[in-house]
Amino acid sequence: MNRNAYPVAAAALAIGLIASACAGSSNSETTTTAAATTTAAAPTPSDSAQLPSLIPTPANSQVTKGPDTIADNGIHMHFQVNGAPTDVMNAFKTALEGKGWALTTIVTSAGGGGGGATYTGTNGDAYGVFDGGGFNTTTYIDVCAWGAKPSNPNCTRGDR
Question: What is the model's pTM?
Answer without folding.
Answer: 0.71
